[in-house]
Structures are given as structure tokens and as C-alpha cells.
Specification:
The chain is mainly β. It contains no helices and eleven strands. The strands form two sheets. Strands 2, 4, 5, 6, 9, 10 and 11 form a seven-stranded mixed beta sheet that branches. Strands 1-3-8-7 form a four-stranded antiparallel beta sheet, with no helix packed on it. The model has no long low-confidence stretch (mean pLDDT 95).
Length: 127
Amino acid sequence: QLQLVDSGGGLVQPGGSLTLSCTASGRPLEWYAIGWFRQPPGQEREGISCITSSGGSTYYAKSAQGRFIISRDNAKNTVTLQMNSLKPEDTGTYYCAAQHTHCSGYASPHGGDFDTRGQGTQVTVTS
């Protein structure tokens, strides 16, 4: 059974950077597309970024384009989200989640089959 552990959140000033990591165990990460999501309390899931199982395609929310970079190292069973030029509105709990192969549906609050997820890591951007 696939298990995901996400990490790397923290407190940072506006304009700063953080790198989130998603580490998989139990199944080969190369089978799965990995999405990064943010879900504020009481609100719907927001797809931030996604990378296909091969790493050949990446997707970003408009809010993340030009500032965030998603990448993966299947040999290390890790997907990272490099977050640059952070803004206060990026604040939230981020988690990674997996579905087989493609990123279909990641951008929709209830789309795809991202059923396996990490526990979440808090990102706080404040001066």
C-alpha cells in the first residue's frame, strides 16, 4: 500500500522560499502522478501543482505559475515543490496526494482519484 509523507513547511517572510517534499513508501513512486494541494479549513481543495508519473508533464495553478517548480526523483521516491517569491496568500496546509499515472482532475476540488495523501505540512507567509 502506498504511503506518503510530506514535509518542509515553515514560517517565512514574504518574498522568501520553501521547498516541500513528498516521500513515498510501500509502492514504487514511478507508478503515480503526484499533486500538491492546499485546503483551508472549511474550504474546498485547491490544486497547486501536479507532475505525471514519468515527470514528462507538469501543471500549475495560475497562482503558482512562474513562482513554484515541481519535480520528482523516482529513484529516491521523492517529489518536491520549490516555492519561491512566497506571498501571504500562499499560507495554508499543503499536502501531496497520488493517483495513477496522470494528473487528470487535479485542478478540480473533487476531481481525479487522489485518494492517498500525506498528513500535510503548514506553510505560513507573514512579515
